[in-house]
């Protein structure tokens, strides 16, 4: 859906509710109409909204800004708006170009204006922002909307939340609990709770051996064929002074696979995430000498990073 297609904000907000939207840096504003080619990690930068509501009086709008967050506003654009660079914008000259919407992030009763973030990039206006005088260019005539409870897309937070218990993207509403525990015999077992089907815990596969420390896992983006698919589980655990990396094929047979063993002098895995640096896996371990050390996996395999310092 493109801006020139034309519609009122509720059309776009309903679309965001259903599909989500990524941050501007994922597909920067351009004045031409190129083929849509967002950054490769778009699906990991997508957020949805639960709902939105129209805001009535100016006092209600200011209260929303003070207590909830930004609001959406539409106004008439004239050619003199293009040249805005600082101060409070008041329409004085120029021809009418059409309607436009911005995100109001604040207000100033001293300057009698709304403070808004535009979508035209940081090179426009005041580093991408604009102050529009109260009542100017129909900004207080058109309906304003507040967004309710912005909700990270189910797969956005998975690669950053880690531990031996996570809320994954599996399940009807993509929110099952996933747990991997260490058994008395040194193996690991995967358990999952169906949070949309009675909240019953279900036993999963038993895998690995020689484990005596807690594992750390995430739900990453590997294995996602589309933005609506579910990524693999990625797990790292210390065993025998090294780190074992395991992954579960969430788009295939749901089995756990041991992919690599790396590192040295490792006592336990402290943290794991999938970063925005080339989708690399990033691991921090606790060494036997009490030091923290970084490892990462890129397209070439696992790499030993720097010593961070004492735990």
Please give a quick description of this structure.
With 311 residues, this protein is mostly beta strands. It has three helices and 20 strands.
Which features characterize this protein?
311 residues, mainly beta, eight-stranded mixed beta sheet, 3 helices, elongated
* Coarse structural class: mainly beta
Residue share in β-strands: 35-45%
Portion of residues within helices: under 10%
Mean of the pLDDT scores?
Answer: 88
Q: Strands of the biggest beta sheet: in what spatial order?
A: 1-2-8-3-5-6-7-4
Low-confidence stretches: none
Q: Count all strands and give the number.
A: 20
Distance between the termini: 49 Å
What is the chain-wise order of helices and strands?
HEEHEHEEEEEEEEEEEEEEEEE
Helical segment tally? 3
Major sheet, described briefly?
8 strands, mixed
Radius of gyration: 25 Å
Structural topology:
Layout: H1 9-19, E1 21-22, E2 46-55, H2 58-67, E3 71-78, H3 79-82, E4 88-89, E5 96-108, E6 113-117, E7 129-133, E8 144-152, E9 165-167, E10 177-182, E11 188-194, E12 200-207, E13 216-219, E14 233-239, E15 242-248, E16 256-262, E17 266-274, E18 281-287, E19 291-298, E20 301-310
Parallel strand pairs: 4-7
Antiparallel strand pairs: 1-2, 2-8, 3-5, 3-8, 5-6, 6-7, 9-10, 10-11, 11-12, 13-14, 14-15, 15-16, 17-18, 18-19, 19-20
Describe the structure.
This protein is mainly beta and 311 residues long. Helices cover 8% and strands 44% of the residues. The protein contains three helices and 20 strands. The chain has helices at 9-19, 58-67, 79-82; strands spanning 21-22, 46-55, 71-78, 88-89, 96-108, 113-117, 129-133, 144-152, 165-167, 177-182, 188-194, 200-207, 216-219, 233-239, 242-248, 256-262, 266-274, 281-287, 291-298, 301-310. The strands form four sheets. The chain has an eight-stranded mixed β-sheet. The relative contact order is 0.10. The mean pLDDT is 88.
């Amino acid at each position: 859906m493109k801006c020139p297609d034309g519609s009122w904000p509720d059309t776009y907000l309903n679309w965001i509710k259903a599909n989500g939207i990524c941050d501007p840096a994922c597909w920067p504003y351009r004045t031409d109409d190129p083929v849509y080619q967002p950054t490769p990690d778009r699906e990991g930068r997508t957020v949805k909204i639960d709902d939105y509501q129209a805001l009535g009086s100016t006092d209600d709008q200011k209260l929303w800004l003070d207590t909830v967050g930004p609001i959406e506003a539409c106004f008439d654009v004239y050619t003199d708006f293009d040249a805005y660079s600082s101060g409070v914008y008041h329409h004085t000259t120029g021809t009418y170009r059409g309607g436009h919407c911005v995100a109001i992030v604040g207000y100033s009763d001293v300057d009698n204006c709304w403070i808004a973030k535009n979508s035209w990039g940081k090179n426009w206006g005041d580093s991408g922002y604009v102050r529009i005088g109260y009542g100017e260019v129909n900004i207080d005539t058109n309906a304003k909307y507040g967004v309710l409870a912005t909700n990270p897309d189910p797969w956005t937070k998975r690669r950053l939340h880690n531990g031996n218990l996570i809320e994954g993207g599996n399940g009807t509403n993509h929110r099952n609990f996933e747990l991997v525990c260490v058994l008395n015999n040194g193996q690991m077992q995967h358990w999952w709770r169906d949070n949309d089907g009675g909240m019953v815990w279900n036993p999963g596969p038993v895998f690995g051996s020689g484990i005596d420390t807690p594992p750390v896992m995430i739900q990453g983006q590997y294995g996602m064929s589309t933005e609506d698919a579910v990524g693999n589980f990625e797990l790292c655990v210390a065993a025998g002074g090294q780190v074992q990396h395991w992954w579960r094929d969430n788009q295939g047979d749901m089995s756990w696979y041991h992919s690599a063993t790396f590192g040295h002098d490792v006592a336990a895995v402290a943290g794991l995430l999938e970063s925005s640096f080339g989708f690399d896996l990033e691991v921090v371990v606790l060494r036997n000498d009490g030091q923290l050390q970084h490892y990462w996996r890129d397209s070439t395999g696992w790499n030993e990073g720097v010593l961070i310092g004492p735990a």
